[in-house]
Design brief:
InterPro entries: HAD-like_hydrolase_domain, HAD-like_sf, HAD-SF_hydro_IA, HAD_sf. This is HAD family hydrolase. It comes from Breznakiella homolactica. This protein folds into 2 domains: 208 residues, HAD superfamily/HAD-like (Rossmann fold, 3-Layer(aba) Sandwich); 76 residues. The chain is globular. The protein has 11 helices and 8 strands. By secondary structure, the chain is α/β, with parallel strands linked by helices.
Length: 298
């Protein structure tokens, strides 16, 4: 995308977004309560790199994740269809996207159990798009209609303070082309300008696989090892026990489960892959990570 497109997409995100309803913190099983921070910081001392999930961790989202499989908001999708398609309903938009994702996954399952799509390519093939809108803008507007997002409380301050303390920041996340633009829309800068290491920005749409595919975590691991960094000095934080905690722990990273938003918390109880996996810590607020910067909590 060129600069004019990027600025347009950032403006669309800003104009289409508003704070999501604050919900009570979700209850936690006893074994997770026992790992709450503050209280379990000692096992996480010596961390020099923090890697973040995006959806459900840094940004609250209605779906709790990126909207590839999210629900249907009738009013907003019908409005989108009326304005930007040729005689199409919101229900038909939803059906097209769902089927396009399923077909793409079926093609890719022979290559990986965790296939990822590029949603802009799916919308590029949509035959009923109006001439007044580009396919990437349609992809973005669809995502904002089905999966509104807003920064998680304390996200900006957490990132600022960790970066200021010399902590290396990175991202490993299920993502699409518009995901980095969320940072510019809400925080004023792309991740690279906020202190994130450009070599540690791992987005699923670029890799062709989604979390918890080992390739995403290993890509960051290879970069860190090339710098002489031990994976035990790396912390990954996310909201999903399978996609985040299991995936990161398999790479040797320390892990923290973010459990501050009931929309996004995924304990995956009963999933056999994670039955022997527990996070090293659990936080209810992103500010609770600031012990890593040796800064007192307010």
């Amino acid at each position: 995308m060129n600069e004019a497109e990027r600025q347009r997409y950032v403006s669309i995100i800003r104009d289409s977004s508003e704070p999501l309803e604050t919900l009570p913190q979700p209850p936690l099983p006893a074994e997770f309560e026992a790992r709450l921070i503050p209280g379990k910081e000692q096992s996480l001392r010596g961390i020099s790199t923090v890697l973040f999930d995006v959806y459900g961790t840094l940004f609250s989202s209605s779906a709790g994740d990126i909207g590839v499989s999210s629900g249907y908001v009738r009013g907003s999708l019908d409005d989108l269809a009326l304005r930007y398609t040729e005689d199409c309903t919101g229900e038909e938009l939803k059906a097209y996207f769902r089927n396009a994702v399923l077909q793409a996954h079926e093609r890719l399952f022979s290559e990986t159990p965790y296939p990822e799509v590029r949603v802009d390519e799916l919308w590029k093939a949509f035959p009923r798009k109006a001439d007044t809108i580009g396919y990437r803008e349609l992809a973005l507007r669809y995502e904002l209609a089905v999966n509104p997002v807003y920064p998680m409380a304390g996200a900006r301050d957490c990132l600022r303070d960790l970066s200021a303390a010399g902590i290396t920041l990175g991202i490993i996340s299920n993502a699409q082309f518009y995901t980095p633009l969320l940072f510019e829309a809400f925080f004023g800068s792309l991740p690279e300008a906020m202190g994130f290491d450009p070599d540690l920005l791992v987005y699923s749409y670029r890799e062709g696989e989604a979390k918890p595919a080992p390739s995403l975590f290993n890509k960051a691991l290879d970069v860190l090892r090339s710098r002489g960094q031990d994976p035990g000095s790396v912390l990954y934080i996310g909201n999903d026990m399978l996609n985040d905690i299991y995936g990161a722990a398999s790479a040797g990273f320390k892990t923290v489960l973010f459990a501050g938003d009931p929309r996004s918390l995924r304990l995956r109880e009963g999933n056999r892959l994670i039955r022997n996996t527990m996070p090293d810590g659990v936080v209810r607020r992103l500010e609770d990570l600031l012990f890593l910067a040796d800064r007192p909590r307010q």
